[in-house]
Amino acid sequence: MTTADLPQVMAIERASYATPWEEAAYRQALGSEQAYLDVVTFRGEIVGYSGMWHFVDTVHLGTIVSHPAARGKGIGELLLVNVIARATDLNAEHVTLEVRPSNHPARALYEKYHFSEVGYRKNYYRDKEDALLMTSPPLRNLDFQAMVRANFEAALARLAQHFGE
Ligand SMILES: CC(C)(COP(=O)(O)OP(=O)(O)OC[C@H]1O[C@@H](n2cnc3c(N)ncnc32)[C@H](O)[C@@H]1OP(=O)(O)O)[C@@H](O)C(=O)NCCC(=O)NCCS
Fold first, then answer.
1. What CATH number is attached to the domain comprising 101?
2. Whole domain around residue 85: which residue ranges?
3. Of 61, 132, 135, nearest in space to 99 by CA
4. Which residues, judged by CB distance below 6 Å to any ligand atom, belong to the binding site of ligand 1?
């Protein structure tokens, strides 16, 4: 992601979250050495993006979004696997994240990749919904890596069906 992407990112952000981030938060993240922001594009348009933060032995997934018109086609998985791969390259032990209990699509995505619930933050979001804390299995676990590879191959086949030209 670059600052040139922000108009498209912000339009998707506002269409996707009850409490969207401000553009300033993305600008700040783009200037941070700890943050890694990635976009997925199709025919020059952004169809998804993610933001992760690296803290010593942990990667925190702060945002993951696919364009509302492009959901259910594998973009969420592409983004999540990319985060897992980057975190593994950075020698992180785990990927952690917060998710709204009411966010069933996101919870299903994380559960598909064997993330588990490890805690709870009361009134975490600006609209006072609580957050569930989730964490990945240990990134170096070989069974986890094999599961990610198998899921990713299936996701790539699904992406090719929808976006292959
Ligand atoms: C969560 C989100 C990123 C998923 O993106 P996506 O591109 O639709 O996801 P994919 O097509 O890659 O689907 C992958 C998996 O996610 C889960 N999933 C996605 N959409 C779902 C839905 N509507 N209902 C239930 N599970 C769903 C499923 O486990 C799915 O795997 P499956 O098809 O084998 O069942 C997307 O819904 C989104 O952008 N939501 C708004 C932003 C948001 O809430 N982000 C998470 C913040 S914690």
1. 3.40.630.30
2. 3-163
3. 132
4. 16-17, 64-66, 71-77, 99, 103-106, 108-109, 112
